[in-house]
GTP-binding protein
Amino acid sequence: MQLPIRVTVLTGFLGAGKTTMLNALLRDPALSRTAVIVNEFGEAGLDHLLVEGASEGIIELSNGCVCCTVRGELVDRMADLADRMQTGRMPAVERVVIETTGLADPAPVLAALMAHPALSQIYALDGVVTLVDAHAGLKGLEGRLEAERQVAVADRLVLTKTDLSPADPDLLSWIRHLNPRARILDAASGEAGAQSLLNAGLYDPETRTSRLAEWLNGQNCDCDDPHHHHDHHDHSHHHHTGTVRALSLVHKSPVSLSAVQEFIDLLQSMFADKILRMKAMVHTLEHPDRPLVLHGVRRYMHPPVLMQNWPQAVSPHTRLVVIGEGLDPRVVEDLFAAFTGQPRIDAPDRAALTQNPLAIPGM
Ligand SMILES: Nc1nc2c(ncn2[C@@H]2O[C@H](COP(=O)(O)OP(=O)(O)OP(=O)(O)O)[C@@H](O)[C@H]2O)c(=O)[nH]1
């Protein structure tokens, strides 16, 4: 391996469209020799199932406080990958794409790559691609350190979901304020293909805005540092660890489409803005052979999609991940159980629930 393996970091806030973009990129011949690392937040681990046809080469990092765990772990994964290639246990690749979780601050990933003595010989950072959901807009992004950092470190900024609504001027000026340099591409117009996203040039921290330099220097994870552990004056580093959590549910028997719909409607009406992201792969009574994939980004539910087949690695069970702020997991679990707890849903209870959410037993 004489050439360094180029590393592309794909980032963007929860639900911005990273997995969708990754799937599109992986279909491009330019990425035929690419390994993918998916880092996800959420116990059920749905993301790697949603990356089509890539189950073989995927290395998934565990969830948890991203700023604490990703650095050590990512270094291990990258080292493992290099070792497998060098020993012929895996075909050599030209590129690695790292899809970070929507809650990740990419700075530690970059810092870990640049600073590691062995890995920096093998891998060279090609660029950071940050996706921004134009439809969701600025609300919920502004003031969120992870989201700001994702935009600030980008070499390419991609506005997604402009087919649903054009980017708001406020959103654009927020982006430009954080990152005056990176090219902005519009996903809906098709300009965000492999040609424009890859080979963005080697990363040079000197040429970034001063805020980035500060972040890269100041981002050293203090979570394991006993001196900082209970430092309540510094909220910023713990922004995503305090109240944002992922909860995941698995249900083994098929559920009806209407039960799913009602569950989601009720969940959204009860929790409203507390829900940042929802993803589900549902085993339905109506289409038992094809998983129904649901995506919610804050209040917006994307139209459900039936995948062709269940991924080979998994049994056809319903898996749901909800990422939210200040969510009470028991309430969500009870609600889910109320709709799916029995193979045959108890119609009167369900009816009562949909009419009066407060009637849920145990809530
Ligand atoms: N209309 C429209 N929908 C999109 C676009 N990009 C992604 N989506 C939809 O947005 C939803 C979320 O997309 P994902 O690709 O899963 O987003 P993500 O950033 O990987 O999500 P997390 O991993 O949770 O952070 C899915 O329903 C996609 O189909 C787009 O450009 N236009």
Observations:
- Residues 62-69, 202-241, 343-348, 355-363 have pLDDT under 50 and may be disordered.
- The two ends are 59 Å apart (CA to CA).
- The longest helix spans residues 66-86.
